[in-house]
């Protein structure tokens, strides 16, 4: 081979470059993460000013004559800067998403690997539990868990994490099942490698691709579901600047003409989810064509 | 074939999108209200939602003149009071029938009263009878003299008893109906009023229809529907598009738009109300004999479930009073549809103490007080936030959030607790809250109906409390009792003023606002009168 | 005997003639010249074998004839394909569809995946009969039963309503053959028809193709990597390497007097049942990557005889004697001969 | 000849149809097979797809656990060894796979892939392991500077070399080569066959060469065993088998192979029909459904593998005069 | 076939049992005395002790579970804490609304999603393909509640075309028979009621169908592309079939197999979406009921809804499995 040597990472970067939508998704996600990290530097105002500036309540933003200074996207019903709340909301949503997906990953990888690798009754038991959890629409299951745990962002994250666990477990399991059948794993048995060695050195590293891909996609839906819980008043509690909760507080003002309070937080959710979906789809195409459904 | 299909499709789409909708030709009035009822037994409810439905189904012995608090005969045609003022004989109207066909007579009256006060009454078990304790603790019994004569016996003279008798609590219910449904009677109301109950679809609507056999002239409306549209903007939308013909509590932000709309008319009257945040001072009593009075010997003070150490301290409560900018809330959240409150009853009432100086907005002083009370770093406290808008409090979650922000500024973290309206009332009456948003709309226009019900120590009974701050000051209660026992208005006023001072000093409440009552109707809806008591009588309403 | 055969063949009519066919695939990594200037022809009744290793362009050549190159990324970028005098590459889609499955039909390598899993075999065969012969459903079914009997499916009346997954690999390949032959094609393209089958089944299928070829009078283009099958089945052979035909000759010459170093190496490197050797001769190196072809003759890095010119210049396909064509500088040097003039053929 | 590996009555059944209602069914992949591999011998195990040859090889290595029967390695029974005891045996027996793509962990450099068996068996220090890796890589024709590359950077033939190198790392005595050249192009196949032959001679390896391609088997093996539907039907030294195939199946198999020389075009009998399902194998002789010499006894009674002259074993009712009847039962 | 369905039915048993255990434990895990929780807060001590007796609340948990299960199978889900009404009755009143909404949405989603996906795949890399897939990406990323709000804002508030909350205009007298408004209005021949209830249905069902529509479009497309890459498509083309035939006859049928799984799974998404949509549009269905139940900590209500949703989902998955058999002949083996 005359061609220059190419490592996996190089290859990945090269293939990522060809996938324009993935690059776009990545850009959105990076912006989102930057917003979350530097919210306190870039946000023009405090997300929860205390004491409140009630006199700014429902004042419009830059597009109007009647605009309120320093609040480009207008003010919400409590006179708080919508832009600032959205920027801080990125922090809340991303944290919630990462924590939820993290929980799902830790549990899912553990159970999925056990189930896929050992098979038999371990598999049967875990998969039955997964089946049962799959009998609930995800949001409903989250709601049920929140009912027991109580309301709040922390509980919502745990609930969503638990809800996503069976999904992650199934993905890992099928990936493990697939990899387990690969001959390079059989070779390990022939060599006499221990199960732990096979799992940690061969099976798991080769399952990374689906974990990354589905982790990304799951992050998108975790953010959505977290917002949904917030919207229903079961997730983040006021005055946390959580996008979903912002929506639930503001949508009654659209009739009064204050459309901005309900529109912008939704757009923030939409774009972050689009970004993550694009990135996830792109990663799926790049990392693992086998995963295409 | 294809073109035909296309035309049909077009027609359907046209029909579906046609804004006109179904024309409101008939005598149906749909009223958009902010919340659902908690029950439909007049004696077993305290919330306006429920009361306003029952005002149209039930009638009492006497009733208010429209738009005032004057008494006029209703199911009783006349009455005589004994010389010592402890016995009142009522002569009942003949030929009146309940909606279920049962005849109205003395038995029905005795039944409606006795089930509330007589613990051995077979129907006593089906209700909490919360108002009895507030307003009728002076009633000893109701006796039947003959089929159309009854006698009300009082334990002691009570000047306000006649206005109290115009209240929903003592509306006359059909005994046969109660017998039929037992514990479910509250879902199947049956009275003598101008409208009959048809259906109650929970969280959605209640339908009433005209009572054809009404003893007065039949109502002009054929149908009266109370539809729950909890969101004020959605409510206004529904009115604008003709889904409903009248709404309550419009969003103050929308008032200008309403005034500009020729199709709508806005009714505004000063409200006989107060909106406040109560802070649980920690102790109440259990009214074991259900006499509505704290018997000092047998009913000791016990901790309420919502007991919370910091709020038991006066400094803390005063600090909270100082930390909240009420003017800003009234200006920006009530949007000028209310006046700032400094006392627990509206200014136009007898005995209002205008000399009291309200706590100013002074966060710095608040912090000092907190430090003095031992909470320099503040604390975390739970606030019950009402799920519905009331006349005295528009959009409570928003007000709750404002309070949250103000208190955050002095270091107090506020967590919200929200439940449905029925449970909310239940739990606050039980004293589960640490702080709660609530308010009061007067029932009969008597200051006693504010002071005694809301601030008296007798109203601190856990489970049926009206004194949500659990301000258990007996001296204060003595003042209030004295005010009720005398007929001298000046004396009464003096007692009430003194009581208000004590209440102000104790700072168990943050009084927020006295708001105007706003209602919006389609301009073709006539005859609706706003009552100071916030009761809705749709009998005279006509759609033209 | 060889001479007679050759003579007979020269008299036969040309059925398919491919001239300078170029089919390229345009991928992110670059252009893959899967077929790069291939020319050959098939006479009526003849079996032409195309042999080569993976990636040599055999299948792409066949698909180009059918105009079934997936586009994108593939595209026929040049050349002509004359079938019964018409240039297939110039036909409208509609016209080529009338030829596909009727005049030219194809059998594929994977009998497991080459049949639509959700239709019965009867339906599949019936569909092509209905399409090209204008028969109704009932007649088509009758015809399908007939043809399935011919290809040796036992218990046809029952099997015809089976789904592909209910049949064994050999049976499926028989169904494919039945489908291909159902409209009496004049050219049958068989793309590695037996690679996925076991030897005993392979033997059955090869014999079936041979028998039916005689019966239906079709020409066959047989694509395979197995020289054994070539020897068994073909009249003429084209050897492909990296998108080029490197040698074209009749079957006997190929095995007795191969001229191209690749052909020579190939036939020596396979273990044989009939000859025993201590050590196999091998072609060194690896099959080149089509994205990154060597300059000049693509075989030069693996060729024992390569010299400077091989590195610099692509050799021409030249005719050495009657119908024996070789693409190699060595050959040109040794035997002076004229460049192929297809028209004089 | 001294036996290195001996297999006795080996069975490997796979259970399918796990539904709670349905009965369990077994795929009898390997069904009562006995044979041996002599020291430094190359035994070819040949058969069509699904005949159980690969399963047989893997069961010997205990990659799969046998359903029944015993495997002896160097005289030691290894079928019931526990995991820890088995490790000592494992370094002496290795496997080379068919698929050069699937048998290498895509996330490991070839250096660590080759070193892995040594690490597992804790042979030598890190440095010694590395030296050994380079040594083997040179042996199999890989360049030592490729040690840090990943499998995807190699062609199929080179990957097969990596697989061979890994198999040789611990210095095994016995190697199962599972169709190790079938997936390769013809020109590459020859390279790998030659390499295997050279290595076998150099290290004195014993190889069980599993393949379906009789010409490759003929080229590389000393002795050949033919499998059909989970059974060995014939086993003999190479020349004996190819010159005098006794079992009708072997005969058919030999005649079915196309010979790359137009002079040898076949005109003979072709075996008809398909291979029956191993879930429900035919009664009696499993080949009877396709055999042109079938007799009544073939349908009823299963023929035993019997030894004839020249160490030629056949399981067929057509041949009933074994040379040494003592060996029947556990024929080898 | 019969055996297959029986097998599937049997496989439901453990799932349903698991679901019931989860629902059962909800009340036990929740704070408070389960007897009070089940009886409802307004119940008298006699009622509560009767409940304790009935559910064996002093007996071991397993016994309690069996008793409870028996009650549930008899349709007794306890009383709502808030309304003191039988939960089963309240669910029964509301579920037609939810079914109407979800079914109509699913219908939209399947029709539009499949068509868009098929056309997109058959014209891969065309403008049409890019725009449909772009829209679909938006679709799958939309928060359904926000979409609902935006629809309300645009079509309800700004354009005033459609109503934004409720089930039917209050102005219309309407006779309920089955509880399904569209059906009932047709039965009674009440055109005004039909149109009105349809008008109320439009915005929520658009909001609800968008996400599954987008998902189905995406899956259909990729499934189609997958099928179009397969060997047998080449065979069909080699037969001389027109591209239309190849796509609509052979590819579509094969491509539908994974799509059906996704439709089944999406139904779960739809039910979850219904919870949000019903909240936004004040739709008197189970979704809003369960949300109210949660905010009010009305455990029996939540429990009942959990059972309801799970059984719905399980039934839909069973239907999907059965549809498989008709589409994919290979399933007989499975």
Explain what the structure shows.
Chain B: Pfam families: SBP_bac_5. Chain B: Belongs to the bacterial solute-binding protein 5 family. The complex is a heteropentamer of chains A (293), B (544), C (345), D (332) and E (334). By secondary structure, chain A is mostly helical. Chain A has one domain (10-287): MetI-like fold (Orthogonal Bundle), CATH 1.10.3720. In chain A, 71% of the residues lie in helices and 0% in strands. Chain A contains 10 helices and no strands. In chain A, helix 3 (82-118) packs parallel to helix 6, helix 4 (120-134) packs across helix 6 (153-180) and helix 8 (195-231) packs parallel to helix 9 (243-250). The two termini of chain A are 34 Å apart. The mean pLDDT of chain A is 86. Chain B folds into 2 domains: 28-227, D-Maltodextrin-Binding Protein, domain 2 (3-Layer(aba) Sandwich), CATH 3.40.190; 273-516, Dipeptide-binding Protein, domain 3. Chain B is built from 16 helices and 22 strands. Chain B has helices spanning 2-17, 48-54, 106-117, 130-135, 161-165, 175-181, 232-240, 255-260, 314-323, 326-333, 363-373, 396-409, 421-429, 448-455, 474-485, 489-506; strands at residues 28-33, 62-64, 71-73, 76-81, 87-92, 139-146, 149-154, 195-201, 205-210, 223-228, 246-248, 264-270, 273-279, 283-285, 301-303, 338-340, 380-384, 413-417, 435-441, 509-522, 525-526, 542-543. In chain B, strands 1, 8, 9, 10, 11, 12, 13, 16, 17, 18, 19 and 20 form a 12-stranded mixed β-sheet that branches. In chain B, helix 14 packs antiparallel against helix 15 and helix 15 (474-485) runs antiparallel to helix 16 (489-506). The model of chain B is unreliable at 19-25 (pLDDT under 50). In chain C, a hairpin with a 2-residue loop joins strand 9 (236-241) and strand 10 (244-250). Chain C is globular, with a radius of gyration of 21 Å. By secondary structure, chain E is mainly α. Chain E is 76% helix and 0% strand. Chain E is globular, with a radius of gyration of 23 Å. Chains in contact: A-B, A-C, A-D, A-E, B-E, C-D, C-E, D-E. At the A-E interface, helix 4, helix 5, helix 8, helix 9 and helix 10 of A face helix 1, helix 6, helix 7, helix 9 and helix 11 of E.
Largest beta sheet: strand ordering of chain C: 6-7-8-3-9-10-12-11
* Unreliable sequence segments of chain A: none
Mean pLDDT of chain A: 86
Relevant CATH superfamily of chain A: MetI-like
Per DSSP, the total helix count of chain C is: 13
Biggest sheet descriptor of chain A: none
Summed up:
Chain C has 345 residues and is of the alpha/beta class. Chain C has helices at residues 2-11, 58-66, 93-99, 121-133, 137-150, 156-159, 169-181, 199-216, 227-233, 251-256, 261-269, 308-312, 329-334, and strands at 14-27, 30-43, 47-51, 74-83, 86-87, 104-107, 187-191, 219-224, 236-241, 244-250, 317-321, 324-327. In chain C, the strands form 2 sheets. An 8-stranded mixed beta sheet of chain C has the order 6-7-8-3-9-10-12-11, sandwiched between helices.
